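Here is the promised in-class demo. Please do not try to memorize the tokens; focus on the logic of going from shape to residues.
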């Protein structure tokens, strides 16, 4: 492709003059390509999460990346930032008479989709808790910046079930939080902070919102325009404001804790006691209300200082009324979503990215050895080794230079080696050169 753009054949002669005339197409703003070696880190995070979730007896769920727009409007809430301004929504025209036109949306989060699937497949009917995790892309039309993208990845999990299965118990909240602490520790994330709060039940909320509106009324004129709008549409969101000038005012606003009923306070206290019992440190942050309407009682966030403005590594909470809000049976639940992009940023800041080197580079000498080299590579790969295969058309110097960039060792396969079955192996770290019988080669190349 590059050759056809940069060169032109004029009367049998190649000239290097023609510049590409078409602008190169780039990835869409807010989306990114993930390339090696960074993808190694992503895979490592995925694998660690799957391993930890399995120990807690979670199973994987995969839901579609687009859903009926109503799911998010009713589940996440019309007044939330996500639904009111960040969704990728389109009108899907009917293609046949049997189809109806439908408003569809790329999922901005995965909890609503999981709860929809729980309802659709009647997962609660056995009377057991459903413990489901997911890993996948989510889409929000946010202003892109470091740690905030329009396509980003979440690793999340949900514990949901009928009340008779114990789905309302504070023990479930504490177990999920303890699992997250274990996962972050196992990933080697140092210095995380867990903030928790209770936003009460839908019965507590109107009481608090009325108190909050009254307290905001005399001061909201001095706040940012976002807060002025939120004070009207969704006053809880004012507590999320990050504007430094608004902080002294927010500090004087009434706390949701004072509007909670006894049952919500007892629930919160039991979560705290269980966390104390297993030694998971946390802080009670009275302002943590989170941006999604479905939360009830426990809300939480794990933060990390290394992330700057976008310091939330993950967030979650309880959603006891979500299933009913989207037309299902009573099915209380608790869940979280980890921002995988932010986990990667945190881990990258902790350790320098290391290029993964192949265990060996096989250098055939002369094109006649190419087939034998492929057969040898096949054997070594079958033994679990990571192998780069060179090309007999390369000069030996080029093979050495390439191998030194890609692999820990080079294996020379010339005519003599092919005939004798004894191969020459050079270790780039020690400079040592050894003759190794083919039968011992895999063992010799294993990383120590
Ligand atoms: P939420 O679904 O809003 O509760 O977010 C849960 C987590 O997802 C956050 O704590 C972030 O780590 C991550 N997250 C949310 N929005 C974005 C985004 N636009 N880009 C990258 N990560 C995000």
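The designed amino acids, position by position:
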């Amino acid at each position: 492709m590059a050759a056809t753009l940069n060169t032109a054949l004029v009367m049998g002669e190649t000239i290097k003059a023609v510049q590409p005339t078409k602008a190169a197409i780039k990835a869409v703003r807010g989306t990114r390509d993930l390339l090696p070696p960074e993808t190694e880190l992503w895979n490592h995070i995925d694998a660690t999460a799957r391993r930890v979730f399995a120990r807690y007896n979670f199973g994987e769920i995969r839901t579609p990346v687009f859903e009926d727009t109503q799911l998010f409007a009713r589940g996440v809430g019309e007044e939330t930032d996500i639904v009111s301004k960040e969704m990728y929504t389109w009108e899907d025209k009917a293609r046949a008479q049997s189809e109806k036109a439908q408003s569809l949306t790329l999922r901005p989060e995965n909890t609503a989709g999981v709860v929809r699937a729980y309802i659709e497949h009647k997962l609660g009917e056995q009377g057991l808790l459903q413990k489901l995790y997911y890993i996948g892309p989510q889409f929000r039309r946010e202003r892109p910046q470091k740690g905030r993208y329009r396509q980003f990845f979440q690793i999340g999990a949900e514990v949901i079930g009928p009340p008779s299965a114990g789905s309302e118990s504070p023990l479930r909240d504490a177990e999920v939080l303890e699992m997250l602490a274990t996962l972050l520790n196992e990933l080697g994330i140092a210095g995380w902070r867990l903030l928790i709060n209770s936003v009460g039940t839908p019965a507590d909320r109107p009481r608090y919102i009325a108190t909050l509106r009254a307290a905001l009324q005399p001061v909201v004129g001095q706040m940012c325009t976002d807060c002025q709008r939120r004070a009207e549409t969704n006053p809880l969101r004012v507590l999320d404001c990050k504007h430094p000038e608004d902080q002294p005012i927010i500090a004087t606003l009434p706390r949701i804790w004072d509007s909670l009923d006894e049952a919500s306070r007892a629930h919160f206290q039991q979560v705290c006691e269980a966390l104390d019992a297993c030694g998971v440190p946390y802080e009670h942050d009275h302002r943590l209300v989170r941006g999604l309407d479905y939360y009830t009682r426990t809300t939480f966030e794990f933060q990390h200082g290394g992330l700057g403005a976008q310091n939330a590594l993950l967030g979650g909470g309880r959603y006891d009324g979500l299933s009913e809000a989207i037309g299902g049976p009573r099915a209380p639940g608790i869940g979280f979503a980890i921002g995988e992009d932010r986990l990667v940023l945190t881990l990258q800041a902790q350790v320098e990215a290391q290029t993964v080197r192949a265990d060996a580079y096989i250098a055939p000498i002369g094109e006649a050895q190419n087939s034998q080299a492929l057969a040898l590579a096949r054997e070594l790969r079958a033994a679990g080794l990571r192998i780069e295969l060179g090309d007999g058309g390369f000069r030996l110097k080029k093979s050495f230079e390439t191998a030194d960039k890609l692999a820990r060792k080079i294996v020379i396969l010339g005519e003599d080696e092919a005939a004798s079955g004894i191969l020459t192996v050079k270790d780039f770290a020690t400079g040592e050169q050894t003759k190794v019988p083919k039968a011992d080669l895999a063992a010799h190349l294993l990383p120590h």
